[in-house]
Amino acid sequence: MAKTIAEINQKIKEGKAVVATAEEIISIAKTDGIKTAAQKIDVVTTGTFGPMCSSGAYFNVGHSKPKIKLGGGKITLNDVPVYTGFAAVDILLGATALPDDDPKNKVYPGAFNYGGAHVIEDLVTGKKVRLMGTSYGTDCYPNRNIDTLISLKSINDAVLFNPRNCYQNYNVAVNLSDRVIYTYMGMLQPNLKNANYCSAGQLSPLMNDPLYLSIGIGTRIFLGGGEGYICWPGTQHNPTVPRSRGDVPRSPAGTLAVIGDLKHMNHHWIKGVSLTGYGVSLAVGIGIPIPILNEDILRYTTVKDRDIYTQVVDYSEAYPQGKTESLGEVNYAQLKSGKIKIGGREASTGGLSSYAKAREIATILKDWIKSGRFFLAEPVANLPGPKNMSNPAP
Amino acid sequence: MKNRKVVMTFPPHLIDEPVTYRLIKDYDLRINILKARVVPREEGRLVIELGGKVEALKKAETYLADLGITMEPLVREIAFLEDKCVHCTACIPICPTKALSLDRKRMLVSFQNEKCIICGLCVPVCPYRAMDMLHTDDK
Asked: Which residue among A42, A103, A157, B44 sits deepest, i.e. has the most Cβ atoms within 10 Å of its Cβ?
């Protein structure tokens, strides 16, 4: 019997919704079978917590007296430059932005201890941030200099926006060269000594809805400890990659653009990331509910780490040179065991995406739904899928 | 009499040399091994407290230097800032002594100070800067 989102929301309202995390559903479906589980379970919750450079926030900081036109001026937040090409007091801060006086990789490998992502984390933590800069002065905005402290409380709007997040699968990074390399996948030791991966695997949102049957534009989500929305396919959304049995992509595929009110977020789920030798990034906690509308949707949520395969890629040569070479395929159960074998050689594995935090997010979202605090939203348009690569369509 | 805490780094070929025995027998030093990592064909590290007469300590230092052992004062300690750790596990393959370890069921990282040889590799590897090198006074 198929359910609708409206019916599930009614059950949430009555406190009767039956919710399981993407981990719990595996054993539930094993015991009860797909058919019974699909009837019994209303929502499956997923989670992910990893660095995503394609993150940022925009702010409306309100007006000083006399007023200043930040738009077109040069403005920094805690010395990190922001983009000012909007209206008078709207500014955009990118997660990877760095202070002008950061030595970057001139002192190799650079430490990248503070950047845009850390400003966002500071604001979410409740700290005051120094806004400084100059502008050119107009008749209506005569002020030319500003040096003030702002906080999330003092400004009008603060919106987190990720042009891309929730990557559906990702490469495993290794280093075939004979020197240490520093990448966005972390430090990679020479001669295949370590292998870094970045996905929550069986808990990851798009792994549990591989064909985007229920996750779409307008889906309400857990974002950074608050509520947010999926607002568009993420940049580089590429659903047409090869897939395994069970339709799970075997390499990076779908992505999501997400948006939400930064003022309602929590610093446990918004964290600045310093990738030595690479730069700054932002870790964002995301949890997506999957409404169990039918048996197909439920079957997809029972995906296990050992069924999710991904490609091992050399980041010393193939990746930087844009060669699409894979050194082999491994699954997430192998990656989480601590060792993988690549061409007969053993590499120790490390993660960048926190499975423990993903599990915590899926559990929080489950509790929110069970307690009637969080309701599901009907998508207003579908994400482009493997067979329909056009723009979002109803 | 003088006491010093030092970190000794041994080249791989010196594994068979009974260094601590010589320090005791030939230089009459009182030694206290705090931490050690000795693996065949790899660089060895020894965190050690040396006590003895100033003259004997000087001679022992020359003996060690001639062998190719580098000696640095112990001015560092690694601190695990638990509230900053998000348990991503990036440090796990890097730590040579498994002082940083992972409970694979709960996927939680923990740090055992007594296993740490203060190599410092985890400090730049942690994206959340949860591993800190503490500098103490060199006495």
From this structure: A42
CB of A69 within 8 Å of a chain B CB? The answer is: no
Contact A341, A280 (CB under 8 A): no
* Candidate from A194, A353, A354 with C-beta closest to B94: A194
Name the E strands within A238-294. 256-261, 270-275, 279-287, 289-291
How far is the C-alpha of A314 from the C-alpha of A312, rounded, in Å?
7
What's the CA gap between B41 and B51, in Å, rounded?
29
Domain that includes residue B108, residue range: 76-138
Tell whether A350 is within 8 A of chain B (Cβ).
yes
pLDDT digits (tens, 9 = 90+) for B43-99: 888 889 899 999 999 999 999 999 999 988 887 789 999 999 999 999 999 999 999
How do residues A120-154 score in pLDDT, each as one tens digit? 999 999 999 999 999 999 999 999 999 999 999 99
Chain A residue with CA closest to B124: the answer is A276
Where are the domains positioned within chain A? 5-52+162-377, 62-155
Q: Is A140 a catalytic residue?
A: yes
Do B95 and B127 sit in the same domain of this protein? Answer: yes
